[in-house]
Amino acid sequence: MRLLAFFKREVVLTVAALCALATMVLVPPDAAYLGYIDLRVLCLLLCLMAVVAGFQSCGAFRWLAGHLLSRGTGPRALAVILVLPFFCSMAVTNDVALITFAPFALLLLDQMDCRAAAVPLLVLQTIAANLGSMATPVGNPQNLYLYGAYGLSAGDFFPVVLPLAGISLACLTATALPVLPRDLQIPPVHPQPLRQPGKLALYGALFLLCLLTVFRILPYGLLTVLVLGTLAAVEPALLRKLDVSLLCTFICFFVVSGNLGRLPAVHGFLQSLLERSTLLTGVLTSQIISNVPAAVLLSGFTDNWRELLLGVDIGGLGTPVASLASLITLKLYLRSPGARPARYLAVFTAWNAALLAVLLAAVWLTSVGA
């Protein structure tokens, strides 16, 4: 029963492990396996998860949400504020942004007796987190991986993603304005006080060290020692809460990608697709296996990092599995009273498809992905 519960809880890790085992049958383990693993990405991901866990333990995100909503505002402005995951995800990843703001939005809608707006608002928050996260190397795991895998610099990365991030923000703002009724009565929101501001400052300093490591100013080995050592000394309980399964999932995808790259038939097939359009291959692959494994898999077959980066970032729109962060809000909504799964999926699919089409058109018209 415990094993079954683990499989249900860690579906992505289970599937990734099975795929890795399947490829290991085709390509037996040898010394080349050691070259599959990108240790720098794994260490950076671990450190970022640790620092974000520290921010959460200090109540930083709840304080931010409450502080912004405590200022008297109208329904339209409130709807825009509630898509804050767009900005939050740039620093603390799209999944953390949704874990923080989606429950807060549901609670606020209940207080305003406006549960009918839950579906469009949660869908908008999900899209906002996925699109906002494209703007920085640390916004989502695929950006972090591709930034390191291709040895990118800030000058390489930001000119490619920022134009689309700006278009995304404009679309989200216009879409969010009519979500809440104009005559909605908004209750006062009292922000919670910050817990342990001293620790918050410490975690802020560690986050800056993470950014220095992302931009290759600080060695990742030194960062890992500093972050894990600090947590062990200051708040050791957080070490047990880190999402180790995500790191294991990455390792499995590294194995899958490495082994597939050594199979001539698979290598030729993927290269033929990427030669036709790296952008569309990234988008379509993300719809099936999600954008993180798509980035890991396809990066071994192309040097066109611009289109691949845009493809897996834009590819987070579409199906619920295109970005695993999307499953967070889906689960939260399904657990809420009066949930209507069919309506949620219909709205989710329609809005994701519309924005996906807009962004693909923007890439084509501006030749950002060229």
What can you tell me about this protein's structure?
This protein has helices spanning 2-9, 11-26, 39-57, 60-69, 75-81, 85-92, 94-111, 118-132, 141-149, 154-176, 197-214, 220-234, 244-260, 264-276, 278-289, 291-299, 305-314, 326-335, 341-366. The longest helix is centred in the last third of the chain and has 26 residues, at 341-366. It has 370 residues and is mostly helical.
Task: List strands and helices in order, with pairings.
Blueprint: H1 2-9, H2 11-26, H3 39-57, H4 60-69, H5 75-81, H6 85-92, H7 94-111, H8 118-132, H9 141-149, H10 154-176, H11 197-214, H12 220-234, H13 244-260, H14 264-276, H15 278-289, H16 291-299, H17 305-314, H18 326-335, H19 341-366
Helix pairs in contact: 2-13, 3-9, 3-11, 3-12, 6-7, 6-8, 7-8, 7-18, 8-10, 8-18, 8-19, 9-16, 10-19, 11-12, 13-16, 14-15, 15-16, 15-17, 16-17
Radius of gyration: 21 Å
Strand content: under 5%
**N→C terminal distance:** 51 Å
* Strands, count: 0
What structural class should be given to the helix and strand makeup? mainly alpha
- Total count of helical runs of at least 4 residues: 19
Shape descriptor:
globular
Helical fraction equals: over 70%
Poorly predicted spans: none
Largest sheet: number of strands, sense, barrel closure: none
